[in-house]
Amino acid sequence: MRPDDINAYYYAKNFGKNAMPPFYFKRKFKRLQAYRDRCDQAYLQKRLDYYLKLDSAFQLPEDAVAAKNFKRTKGTGYYLDLKEFLHYFSPDARFTYHFGDELHINPYPTLFKARPLNDKNANSVLFKLNKRRHFRWVSDSRTFEQKKDMVVWRGRSHQKQRRYFVEKYWENPTFDVGLTDKLHTQGRHLKGFMDIKTQLEHKFIACIEGYDVATNLKWAMSSNSLCIMPKPTCETWFMEGTLEAEKHYVEVKNDFSDMEEKMQYYIRRPKEAQAIIANAHRHVAQFKNRRTEDLLCFMVLEKYFELSGQTDFLRFCRP
Length: 319
Description:
Elements: H1 7-18, H2 22-38, H3 41-51, E1 65-66, H4 76-86, E2 94-95, E3 110-112, E4 115-116, E5 124-126, H5 131-134, E6 148-155, H6 160-169, E7 175-179, H7 196-199, E8 202-206, H8 217-221, E9 226-229, E10 234-235, E11 250-251, H9 259-268, H10 270-285, H11 290-307
Parallel strand pairs: 3-5, 6-7, 6-8, 8-9, 9-11
Antiparallel strand pairs: 1-2, 4-10
Domain Glycosyl transferase CAP10: 139-304
Pfam family, one: Glyco_transf_90
GO molecular function, one term: transferase activity
């Protein structure tokens, strides 16, 4: 267990940071800008433009909140993830945000955790929110060939596609799948909680979307198991929209009807499976550099404030 997995430690640490005096954030700001100068600028720009697609000026609504008025309401983790970077900006810098799993698109640019994968999602600006839950990685000591020839999945029943998936493969001996709550299930297809370590004993980890992205996708892609799932319909800071079928994951039909066939295909072709796993690891690797991740969070807000026509939005002068 990581220290941050303990709620009391996590909240004490992060609320404590928010109480630090201005010179603490000024020092961090200077270090961040110095690091920015050493980075691959083309790479930074590519990711920045992915998260904030807009490149022309926009107007904020009247009810946009100023940084000085940003308060914790619901979603403490969301609040802390955004508040961490607002310290670098003027207390009067204004923005709009939405916390939660909803995928609606506002008529004005808004900071979201997730957005639908389509060509009309530019007003949903991706920010790294709820990262404590979503951005988890694993250390996997088993190779693909050392794992069980099975698909594993555990999850809540709140989405129809999850219930359908479990019902379809409930009696299949090569699938260890089950729902972890009784909501919508009338007590059917329930299985107990399975920790990540045990799930990693299986060659295939099913990643099934819920209200937005599949929460387990990120840690599963850092493992030596294959992610097997339908084509993603939404994306987060993890850039699910850039993932390619049979390159980063094994893609199956939306009704899961070919999942067993795909499983057997890769069991017989472990080298192809390992090539996909290696590509998945390369995708994950770019999110493991804490300084780059922090810099990009800063840059998303910086671009947002610039395009919204705000001046003097920085709290500190650039070195």
